[in-house]
Design goal:
single chain; 284 residues; alpha/beta; Rossmann fold; 2 domains; six-stranded mixed β-sheet; six-stranded parallel β-sheet; 10 helices; globular; Shikimate_DH-bd_N
Length: 284
């Protein structure tokens, strides 16, 4: 990688962020596509967010990615929002278009791109959790023409989740069904009718726990996905595979949301296969 007076910057902004895989992914992509760019990780305090966004213009950067806790806080500093960012209420990619800062959310697109030979239009989806990742997946599913969505959260989170689903219904006319995760019979019922089951909670990161009881029976053709990629195979995915179901972890989502951002910044396609190889060697 040659750094000179023409090198343009991009960065991921979050706290904490030093452990991020994003610099590895994007710098590999800059190199592979012979793009004169460099990608850094900036760990900043909340009070510096406005100034950091202003620096995108000041230094004529490609843009930035955002992770926790700044995906929502960044919105007031931007000039425009894409459809999916407005619907999700969170931004993970800011693009500097000749000084105009546009917020996108590539998480949902990245998630669906990571599912092998699967399209969500006219399909039914069950999703566990209602945090940032879940919101981006369900908003994207609605934009892509999903036919029905069941969201399961712990009963203590029901009231917190409802306003967001109401907002989505007001904006799209699409009604998302909300249930308590503790209601096992309804969970079984919904999963039995689904084409896609997604764990969008952090349950399983410990390598021990699973968000659903093992007594649940999966329909044969159901595709099962987990947004977690460390561990590479969560207990949830292991359980799905033991029933003979296709199962996908979250590494593809990480890679393809980055690929969407890279294309928005550079107009070039990220060589995902090459980078995927290096990522799986790192995590498997």
């Amino acid at each position: 990688m040659k750094l000179d007076g023409y090198t343009r910057m991009a960065a991921v902004v979050a706290n904490p962020i030093k452990h991020s895989m994003s610099p590895f992914i994007h710098n590999s992509a800059f190199k592979a596509t012979a793009t004169n760019g460099v990608y850094l990780a900036w760990e900043i305090e909340a009070g510096d967010l406005g100034e950091t966004v202003a620096n995108i213009r000041r230094y004529q950067m490609f843009g930035i990615n955002l992770s926790m806790p700044y995906k929502e806080q960044v919105i007031p500093y931007l000039d425009e929002l894409s459809d999916e960012a407005r619907l999700i209420g969170a931004v993970n990619t800011v693009v500097n278009q000749d000084g105009t800062l546009i917020g996108y959310n590539t998480d949902g697109k990245g998630f669906f791109k990571s599912l092998p030979s699967f399209t969500i239009s006219d399909k039914k989806m069950t999703i566990l959790g209602a945090g940032g990742a879940a919101k981006s997946i369900l908003a994207q599913a609605i934009l892509d023409g999903v036919s029905q969505i069941s969201v399961f959260v712990r009963s203590v989170s029901m009231e917190k989740t409802r306003p967001y689903l109401t907002k989505i219904q007001e904006q799209t006319g699409f009604k998302v069904d909300l249930y308590a995760l503790e209601d096992i019979s309804v969970l079984q019922e919904r999963i039995a009718e689904s084409d896609l089951l997604v764990n969008a909670t952090s349950v399983g990161m410990d390598g021990q726990s699973s968000p659903v009881p093992e007594s649940i029976v999966l329909p044969e053709t159901l595709l099962v996905a987990d947004i977690i990629y460390q561990p590479f195979e969560t207990p949830f995915l292991k359980w799905a595979k033991s029933q003979g179901n296709p199962a996908v972890n979250g590494l593809g989502m990480l890679l393809y949301q980055a690929a969407e951002a890279f294309q928005l910044w550079t107009g070039k396609e990220m060589p995902t296969e090459e980078i995927w190889q290096a990522l799986t060697e790192k995590y498997q």
